[in-house]
Amino acid sequence: MSEKEQVNLTRRNLLGGTAAAMAGLTIAPGIILVETAQAKPKDQPVTDAVRWGILININNCADDCTGCVDACQEENGWGKGSSDESKSRPDQKAQWIRKVKVTDRETGHAKTLPMMCQHCESPPCVDVCPTGASYKRIDGIVLVDKHICIGCRYCMMACPYKARSFIHETLTDQRSYAPRGQGTVESCTMCVHRVDDDQQPACVEACSSTFNSAMIFGDLNDPESKISKELARHGGVRIRADLGLNPGVRYQGIYG
Amino acid sequence: MKRIQFSEISGYAPGYLLILGITGLLAAMGLGAAYYMEHNGHWVTGMNNEIVWGTPHVFAVFLIVAASGALNVASISSVFQKPIYKPMARLSGLLALALLAGGLLVLVLDLGRPDRLIVAMTYYNFKSIFAWNIYLYTGFFAIVIVYLWTMMERRMNGYTRAAGIAAFVWRLALTTGTGSIFGFIVARQAYDAAIYAPMFIIMSFSFGLAVFLLVLMTIYHGTARKLGDAVLYRLKNLLGVFVAAVMMLVTMYFLTNLYATEHHGISAFILAGDHVYTKLFWVVQIILGSIAPLVILYNPITGTSRVWIAIASMLVIIGGLAQLYVIIIGGQAFPLVLFPGMEVSSTFQDGVVASYSPSLPEILLGLGGIGVALIIVTLAVKVLQFTPESLADADIDPNYSAG
Amino acid sequence: MYIFKLAILTLFLSVTSAQAEVPLPSISKGQGDSCVRATDDMRYNHMDYIQHHRDETMYRGIRTEQDSLKQCVTCHAVKDDDGGYINATDKRHFCSSCHSYASVKIDCFQCHTDTPRSTDIHEPLAQGQ
Which of B38, B117, B180, B273 could cross-link to B278 by cystine, CB 3.0-4.6 Å? Predict the structure, then answer.
């Protein structure tokens, strides 16, 4: 049994059956379970009572840290997390999440931040998709239905965040919970398979396990959630707020 | 003015077989390239996750836009009731169908999953301009086929005008829809401009007429049928007007962008950059593709030479391809503005001009679309009565007077 | 219409003649005592069950195991002599054994993994079990 599998088993044993009871508890420094009132049973649909969001305080985001990116690759099986995409050129490879360095031209003040699908309330990718493969789930997560994606890439033209990737070659090394394949478009899923399982997205969990703890995941609709409280207290900006798309991913500390 | 006699192209002249061979070869190479791209995946192309639409889309959009424009002559004849154009209306309709078929073929064969074409036909998101366009394109086929039928079936002649008006309205909608693919993209600096709709309409007039002129002159030269000066000069003058109109709209596009500080970046990028898009814009689109044809078409010496008219038409087509290359690929190459006023950099080329170089399969696929369009015309004029036996002025011009 | 009928007839003839020549597929047995539904039912309707569940999962976040493709792949995984899992490109793969016999293309495994994954990091919680 590999080390990874052992870790999984440990986590499974620790949490199994008691997720609801433990929700909101801190089980290790920096690791906080999702703050839903109770776990959603597997056979129940998601509802629009919640809107999932991520708040990123980039003052806590270390310049040389790529913890979120690494975790995403491992979790979802792209980049270093997969043996696939060996033929594609670097600019053809999938980019679900990337670190972007933002520099103020005048002052030279520079910060880095993670950039991924912003899970817009009014996503342009969903508007332009001819078949409806691009869709927003009722709880605010923007996804691609790869079963009806024809690979036209119009969504990639329309995305203001360059958050989507087209798969340029045949894949075989996918994760069982993160299907992805040649000729279709993909992007950050906010780790929907984990969210449905009352866990945080892999990037947020990884960030929490470092001393940075720059990311908070939670329900934007619930004024009592940690993310809502933090947004109410210290605010947060939407990238390209001028477009009026109201992304579910918010940032603190970009402009100061 | 005599009664117009239409007839098929008879015999198998070497020239005819040569054209058939060349267009057939182009089409075959295009299909081969598409197979190669789909079999391997798009990594064999120059396209990437930033330049997501490449050379095939330049050809496809050109052909689709030109298809609408190829219908100019038929529209002028039926909608604006100019009898001198009427004998050419059938060829005009045929060319429109052929060009659209070629363009759509390229578009479809470049999809990531062309095997799912049926999905595109059965799942619709009606907020998507692409989805509207699927209706606009299939509707165009249907309407133009009916239009051709009313022209070619004597008992249906009474309906030609109605069908012609329907086709005219539809083709304006079609180019509006095609232009809006770019006009409605809010995310990118180069797009998000309503002017793309009228610009694409005028572009269609210009590109379509240029293709029509070349095809017309080739057929009439190759079959030694008469093509009168009066009708040819009218068409070439019209082409000049359209070329000038495209330049006017391009000027308007850049003027509005230059006025707003927010858009200075993209304007400087296209107009004064240090890369292929600026060169294509000035050298190919403006000088070779617009100014040179205008000079040729309106100069009394070159403007009355068939060789020069053909050269001018060719230049308009090359300029049109360059224009679409600048719009489609140049528009994507300009970096997205994520943080206005800030500089950005990343491992995924944020803040830098995206790189793209066309690959051979992409070019072959695009040329394949042209091959398919032309092979349809070549075969159709052979088996059906699309072309009049004479387009001599005395035969078709109601105002013709000998001497 | 005539051509359509002819095509159907040709297809029918080719299938029946193929049945005479091609040996029946050898279908490996899955794990456990029985499938999640009756075998006959699954033979005829598995695609509908999987497709229905796919939309339930994707659009509504319902992640029950009974009709999930992932569960099919897990239970019906076939190992070769060396103990490695067999991929769908191989006719010994549970799905491919029948599908290659019936000449029906499977479009699942372009995106979904065709074997249980050792690289999976995420293990779903055993809720309500």
Answer: B273
C-alpha dist (Å) from residue B183 to A254, B137, B194, B324: 30, 18, 5, 14
Under 8 Å between Cβ of B340 and A243: no
Choose among B289, C129, B321, C113: nearest CA to A42.
C129
| C-alpha span between B90 and B99 (Å, rounded) | 14
B232-268 in b/e form (b: 16+ CB < 10 A) is bebbbebbbebbbbbbebbeebeeebeeeeebeebbe
Taking CB atoms and an 8 Å cutoff, what residues of chain B touch A166? 42, 49, 52, 112
Cα(B63)–Cα(B321) distance, integer angstroms: 10
Domains of chain B and CATH, by start: 6-392 (1.20.1630.10)
pLDDT confidence of residue A161: 96
- B342 min Cα distance to partner chain A (Å): 5
Please give the Cα distance from B83 to A223 (Å, whole number).
73
Average model confidence (pLDDT) for chain A? 87
Give which of A254, A238, A234 is closest to A246, Cα–Cα.
A238
Question: Residue C32, class by beta-carbon neighbours within 10 Å (0-12 exposed, 13-18 middle, 19+ buried)?
Answer: exposed
Cα three-residue angle A190-A196-A198, rounded to 5 degrees: 95
Quick one: which of B387, B380, B368 has its CA closest to B22? B368
b/e A17-37 (16+ beta carbons within 10 angstroms → b): eebeeebeeeeeeeebbbbbe
Alpha-carbon distance of A229 to B146, in angstroms, equals 64
Are the beta carbons of A43 and C64 separated by less than 8 Å? Answer: yes
Q: Which residue has the tokens 């119009």?
A: A154
pLDDT in tens, B1-49: 568 899 999 888 999 999 999 999 999 999 999 999 999 999 999 999 9
Strands (E), B77-196: none
CA distance B23 to B101: 14
> Could you give the CA distance from residue B267 to residue B269 in angstroms, rounded to a whole number?
5
* One-letter amino acid for residue C26 of the chain: S
CA gap A58, A110 in Å, rounded: 11
Rounded to an integer, the average pLDDT of B179-191 is 92
DSSP for chain A, please give it: --HHHHHHHHHHHHHTT-HHHHTT-EEETTEE----SSPPPTTSPP-TT--EEEEEEGGGS-TT--HHHHHHHHHHT-GGG-S--SSS-GGGS--SEEEEEEEETTT--EEEEEEE---BSS-HHHHH-SSS-EEE-TTS-EEE-TTT-----HHHHH-TT---EE--S-----BTTB---TT-EE---TTHHHHTTT---HHHHHHHHSS---EEEEETT-TTSHHHHHHHHH--B-TTGGG---BSEEEESTT-
Q: Of the candidates A14, A32, A86, which has an alpha carbon nearest to the alpha carbon of residue A205?
A: A32
Chains in contact with A, where contact means 3 or more Cβ–Cβ distances below 8 Å, are B, C
Instruction: Tell if the CB–CB gap between A177 and C70 is shorter than 8 Å.
Output: yes
Task: With beta carbons under 8 A apart, name residues in chain B contacting A105.
Answer: 341-343
CATH, range A3-252: 3.30.70.20
Question: Whole-angstrom Cα distance, residue B339 to residue A110?
Answer: 12
- Interatomic CA distance for residues B47 and B275, integer angstroms: 18
Q: Is the CB of residue C69 less than 8 Å from the CB of residue C54?
A: yes
Q: Identify the three-state secondary structure at position B334.
A: coil
Amino acid at C80: D
What residues of B are in contact with residue A152 (Cβ under 8 Å)? 111-112, 130
Of B123, B347, B348, the CB nearest to A148: B123
Q: A156 versus A6: which is more confidently predicted?
A: A156
